[in-house]
Design a protein that fits this description.
Length: 181
């Protein structure tokens, strides 16, 4: 396989200029961090926003020099904040709860735990099949589909007390059959 060296799409002077610009930009990092810390509540986003500013400046199309670098950087930072606010509004980010390990619990995907869960699911499925058909149907409508007793009664032509009786029977049987406390 022959390798052909091609001429670079840019001149060495351009690369040197870009590197000097990036070194100059890095002097603004701390100022940008303070700027964003005043504007956003979540400190974990600050570094991402600073990074976004540098990416936008590095990707700018015009190759000319910037007369007021500080003004340009902070104008870009303001635009990054505006874009962030638009994205958060569209995604309704304020309505989302952040994941908290203490609140939501950690997930243990250990093979023995997975196997135990599969066995318990199988046992519960077998036990459900042992229930009388109407009792099983009432239980499934209530516990799996989330219907209210009144809705189940109307759907199956039973009284509400009849639905309650079937649920008591199903629960007692399943607790006994699955050795639940």
């Amino acid at each position: 396989m022959d390798f052909v060296l091609r001429e670079a799409p840019f001149q060495t002077e351009e690369v040197d200029d870009r590197l000097r610009d990036m070194e100059e930009l890095s002097l603004f990092r701390n100022a940008l961090q303070r700027f964003f810390q005043k504007k956003v509540r979540d400190d974990s986003e600050v570094e991402d926003l600073v990074h976004d500013v540098f990416v936008r400046i590095a990707q700018r199309k015009s190759g000319g020099s910037i007369d007021n670098l500080s003004g340009y950087i902070f104008e870009t930072a303001s635009n990054v904040l505006r874009d962030r606010a638009r994205r958060r509004k569209v995604r309704a980010a304020e309505l989302h709860d952040p994941f908290d390990v203490d609140e939501h619990g950690g997930t243990d995907f250990a093979p023995d735990r997975i196997l135990d869960g599969q066995k318990r699911l199988h046992d519960a499925s077998v036990a459900l099949l042992e229930l009388p058909e109407r009792t099983r149907h009432v239980f499934i409508l209530r516990r799996l589909e989330g219907l209210r007793y009144q809705d189940i009664a109307a759907r199956l032509g039973l009284s509400v007390s009849g639905v309650e009786k079937h649920m008591r029977q199903a629960m007692a049987f399943l607790y006994q059959r699955l050795d639940m406390q």
